[in-house]
Design brief:
globular, single chain, Flippase-like domain-containing protein, transmembrane, cell membrane, L-PG_synthase/AglD, transmembrane helix
């Protein structure tokens, strides 16, 4: 029951936010702008996203090579895309399928590949934090205007005194301290040694830790970080291309892509909706208001851009899934023929 609720909550929240963001928007206005969309810029968007996907596969392969495994870039990319397709259908299943496919194709232990994926997520989080900092430095005026207009704190929060804030901080840190101490006590009481002997937990934990620390043994750290830089820079290129694709946003400055990226990234981290549906529409459309764009035009662009990104991702994911199935089928046929 709890598992079902966890899977349904992001979907329900996504469509609730989507309905709120699209409320009052005339369908005719949306269809008119979609009809005027530039095929050239949509094609550019798809090509840039394809290059970004390739770079993500190359970067993941670097981590796996550091662990001593040598999957080809094509197999790493097909496993990654197949996982993306699965994650869009069943929330949380993408990483498992991605690791399972690579385990079957290149004998990479699932624990180590899961650890490498978590390392990827942490690196992406760090890169997002850098871009958020850059956005605050370059677009602080517009962001402050956005916060004041849409994210005003409640009156009781503004009325809190310094002493009350200190009390809240002390209570927070005390709760964290007691929680950590309680977990340590429970860990001591648990029969860890017996479980590790029966279920080989220790080996799994060691494999997971190796994958998590794979970034420390990458053959070329400078190339790894350069690839990460290009991956996130291409996200800004995608948003800029989508601005140029619609008449209502074609005159926006390139810095607007930085602001939209910052707001939607924060939304994906704090609002757990499926495929960023709803949260992306709401935050992107409101962020463009800071650039003088009417809320209706911002909502039209947010709907259009999210649809293009989702469709392109689905196309790539479907191709990756088919490629993974074909490769596994071919590998199985090869094993059978070799046995005979």
């Amino acid at each position: 029951m709890k598992k079902t609720l966890k899977q349904l909550l992001p979907i329900v929240l996504a469509f609730a936010l989507l309905a709120y963001a699209l409320r009052g928007m005339p369908l005719a206005s949306l269809l008119d702008q979609l009809y005027k969309a530039s095929p050239l810029w949509i094609t550019v968007t798809a090509l840039v996203m394809g290059l970004q996907t390739l770079l993500r596969a190359v970067r993941w392969r670097m981590l796996l090579q550091g662990l001593g495994y040598t999957p080809s870039t094509g197999r790493a990319m097909s496993a990654m895309l197949a996982g993306s397709a699965s994650g869009l259908i069943i929330p949380g299943s993408g990483e498992l399928l991605r690791c399972t496919l690579l385990q079957r194709s290149d004998k990479v232990p699932i624990t180590e590949s899961v650890g490498s994926i978590i390392t990827e997520r942490l690196v992406d989080l760090l890169a997002t934090a850098v871009l958020l900092t850059l956005t605050i430095l370059l677009e602080s005026g517009r962001l402050l205007a956005y916060v004041r207009q849409y994210m005003q704190p409640p009156a009781w929060l503004l009325a809190m005194t310094t002493g009350q804030w200190i009390g809240v901080a002390i209570a927070f840190f005390l709760s964290v301290f007691l929680g950590i101490r309680g977990l340590k006590t429970l860990a001591k009481r648990a029969s860890v040694q017996r479980l590790s002997t029966r279920f080989k937990v220790r080996e799994r934990v060691n494999g997971f830790r190796r994958g998590l620390l794979s970034i420390r043994i990458v053959d070329s750290p400078s190339l790894y970080w350069l690839t990460t830089f290009f991956i996130h820079s291409l996200s800004l290129v995608v948003l800029t291309a989508l601005f140029r694709a619609l008449p209502v946003t074609e005159t926006l400055p390139n810095s607007a892509a930085l602001t939209v990226f910052a707001l939607t990234s924060l939304g994906s981290l704090t609002i757990p909706t499926q495929a960023s549906i709803g949260s992306y529409h709401f935050l992107a459309s409101r962020g463009l208001v800071a650039y003088g764009l009417p809320i209706l035009a911002g909502t039209v662009w947010a709907t259009f851009s999210h649809a293009v990104i989702t469709v392109v991702n689905l196309m790539f994911s479907a191709l990756g899934f088919l490629a993974a199935l074909r490769f596994l089928r071919g590998r199985q046929t090869y094993k059978v023929s070799k046995t005979l």
